[in-house]
């Protein structure tokens, strides 16, 4: 099977799930990507991306949480077909700060489990379906999510003054 | 009454996947929780692994980290693009050059600038020297973990030569801030290339010596062969990279498969174990991959020295932008580090000289996530052998 262009990958997903499920392709020079608009379809899309013979995205290279500083949070998945075709695509998912829940893909790519824990810890995105959603880098009883743009560090942590 | 169990589905031991150990039958067993770390020499830093054990057999392993967490990503948002580079040094402090290179490539991609050809050669030479130094530490401490002290001293003696070379080059032994956006901080000093060539000539027989001393040692082989076997599909699904993935027999090296810099012009192999000495995917395979990668790095350095364009009046700062203000956009750039794929996901909002978001994807962090899978069903002492073969640096895990 040949290596596919981002346009071809986008077209395959669009054909399978309809044009309402995903946005148009943002074919930027540095990182071609598209956004999944319907959260309830993200898990089926992810499964399709991993298993479809033409796509075979078996390797989740990176998962990053982002605070866009306009009331929305986002998750960026950098996918790659490692064993089969060696093509790449980035997929985005957005949610609001009030409704900060997105479906987990930890069952589809096991590596997502720790990445999602990190995004939960630092950005405060709740991944529904992650088997073990705990803080991973900060202490369990830390307040707030440090990578939020409006984050204020707590004054005291167990009697220790925090801001230096 | 002790006997060797072939397979007995009703005992707890076989459920844990350990059907080759001697257990005493008809004795009630209980699970015990054992803390490994955070102050434990075999965890290579401050990592705590909570082991649930049944006798000597690990039923469940849960790593806890974050003891070294200083939120690099938050720091990066408050600093100019150039100022982030010293922070990337402190992530994986054993391979600072490689991490710098990955970060700098991300920014160069955002800016869409070309780097002078000579700079690319200089970068590859220092990165490959660093890769050798890093694998040396990995191999030496792995031997130390499972009781081989002598190879450690031999390897550290040779590592000193590399650190001296790099110190001569830029003044620092471990945290260099050498690779800059669009250039490097210092030109090669006169005779530097000759000294590197001398080192390569000196070091190649020493690698053979190291292999004879450690890798071909029967005790070492018995201790690591068949321990912690990681199948290739599991490795890919867990996102493993670097020697961890290649140890499982997947021929995947970013320098080959997603080439950057001048690697496409150079001749070298992505090392995978052949399965003669080791079982593919076990701890010994991962160790072998590191050993043979040293030979490949030496090859790369030799070719770079031959091919590097000479220019007596070369200014390494010529292409360095005075002010880095990339257009709005995002990029994910990565490099093959000694410990796996290190990637930087950088967003620029186009307004300032600071990154809007700078996420570091760390190879160790992801490789460590497979530890619970590997440790399950092994003896407690084997967890040390497995953890050593994963080769983590906690500075990069916790960032």
- The tally of beta strands of chain B, per DSSP, is 10
Number of domains of chain A: 1
Strand order of the largest sheet of chain B: 3-4-5
Overall average residue pLDDT of chain A: 87
Give a description of the structure.
The complex is a heterodimer of chains A (164) and B (399). Chain A is of the alpha/beta class and 164 residues long. Chain A has a single domain (6-161), classed as NADH:ubiquinone oxidoreductase Nqo5 subunit (Beta Polymerase, domain 2, 2-Layer Sandwich), CATH 3.30.460. Helix content of chain A is 20%, strand content 25%. In chain A, the strands form three sheets. Chain A has a four-stranded mixed beta sheet. Chain A has a two-stranded parallel sheet with strand order 5-6. A two-stranded antiparallel sheet of chain A has the order 7-8. In chain A, a hairpin with a 7-residue loop joins strand 3 and strand 4. The longest helix of chain A has 12 residues, at 6-17. The radius of gyration of chain A is 17 Å and the shape is elongated. The N and C termini of chain A lie far apart (56 Å). In chain B, the strands form four sheets. Chain B has a three-stranded antiparallel beta sheet. Chain B has 16 helices and ten strands. In chain B, helix 5 (117-145) runs antiparallel to helix 15 and helix 12 packs parallel to helix 15 (380-390). Chain B has 399 residues and is an alpha+beta fold. In chain B, 45% of the residues lie in helices and 14% in strands. Residues 1-16 of chain B have low confidence and may be disordered. Chain B folds into two domains: 2-64, no CATH class; 72-398, Cytochrome-c3 Hydrogenase, chain B. Chain B has helices at residues 12-15, 72-77, 85-89, 96-111, 117-145, 150-170, 192-215, 218-224, 232-237, 243-247, 254-257, 283-307, 363-368, 371-375, 380-390, 394-398, and strands at residues 2-4, 22-24, 31-36, 48-54, 57-64, 179-180, 183-184, 329-337, 340-348, 357-361. In chain B, strand 9 and strand 10 form a beta hairpin. The interface between A and B is large, with 36 and 37 residues.
């Amino acid at each position: 099977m040949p290596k596919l262009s981002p346009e071809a990958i986008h077209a395959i997903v669009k054909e399978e799930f309809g044009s309402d499920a995903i946005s148009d392709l943002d074919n930027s020079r540095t990182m071609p990507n598209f956004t999944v608009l319907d959260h309830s379809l993200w898990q089926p899309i992810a499964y399709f991306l991993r298993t479809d013979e033409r796509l075979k995205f078996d390797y989740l290279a990176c998962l990053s949480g982002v605070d866009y500083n306009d009331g929305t949070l986002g998750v960026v998945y950098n996918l790659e077909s490692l064993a089969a075709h060696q093509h790449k695509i980035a997929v985005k998912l957005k949610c609001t700060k009030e409704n900060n829940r997105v479906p987990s893909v930890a069952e589809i790519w096991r590596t997502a489990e720790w990445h999602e824990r990190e995004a939960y810890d630092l950005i405060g995105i709740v991944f529904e379906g992650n088997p073990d959603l705990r803080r991973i880098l900060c202490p369990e009883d830390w307040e707030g999510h440090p990578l939020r743009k409006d984050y204020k560090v707590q004054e005291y942590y167990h009697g220790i003054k925090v801001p230096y | 009454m002790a006997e060797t169990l072939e397979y007995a589905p009703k005992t707890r031991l076989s459920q844990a996947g350990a059907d080759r150990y001697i257990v005493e039958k008809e004795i009630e067993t209980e699970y015990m929780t054992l803390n490994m770390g955070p102050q434990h020499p075999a965890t290579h830093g401050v990592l705590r692994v909570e082991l649930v054990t049944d006798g000597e057999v690990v039923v469940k392993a849960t790593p806890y980290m974050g003891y070294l967490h200083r939120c690099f990503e938050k720091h990066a948002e408050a600093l100019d693009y150039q100022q982030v580079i010293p922070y990337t040094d402190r992530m994986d402090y054993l391979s600072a050059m490689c991490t710098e290179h990955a970060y700098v490539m991300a920014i160069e991609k955002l800016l869409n600038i070309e780097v002078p050809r000579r700079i690319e050669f200089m970068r590859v030479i220092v990165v490959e020297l660093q890769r050798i130094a890093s694998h040396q530490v990995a191999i030496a401490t792995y031997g130390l973990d499972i009781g081989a002290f002598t190879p450690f001293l031999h390897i550290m003696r040779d590592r000193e030569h590399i650190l001296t070379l790099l110190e001569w080059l830029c003044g620092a032994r471990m945290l260099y801030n050498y690779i800059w956006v669009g250039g490097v901080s210092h030109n090669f000093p006169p005779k530097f290339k000759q000294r590197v060539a001398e080192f390569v000539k000196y070091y190649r027989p020493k690698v053979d010596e190291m292999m004879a001393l450690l890798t071909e040692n029967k005790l070492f082989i018995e201790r690591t062969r068949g321990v912690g076997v990681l199948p290739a599909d599991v490795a890919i699904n867990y996102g493993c990279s670097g020697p961890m993935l290649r140890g499982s027999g997947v021929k995947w090296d970013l320098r080959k498969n997603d080439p950057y810099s001048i690697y496409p012009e150079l001749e070298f192999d992505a090392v995978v174990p052949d399965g003669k000495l080791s079982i593919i995917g076990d701890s010994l395979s991962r160790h072998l991959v590191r050993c043979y990668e040293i030979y490949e790095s030496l090859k790369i350095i030799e070719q770079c020295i031959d091919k590097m364009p000479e220019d007596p009046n070369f200014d390494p700062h010529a292409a360095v932008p005075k002010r880095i203000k990339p257009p709005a956009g995002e990029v994910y750039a990565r490099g093959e580090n000694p410990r796996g794929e290190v990637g930087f996901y950088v967003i620029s909002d186009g307004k300032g000289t600071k990154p809007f978001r700078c996420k570091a994807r760390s190879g160790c962090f992801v490789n460590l996530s497979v530890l619970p899978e590997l440790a399950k069903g092994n003896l407690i002492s084997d967890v040390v052998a497995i953890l050593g073969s994963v080769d983590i640096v906690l500075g990069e895990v916790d960032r």
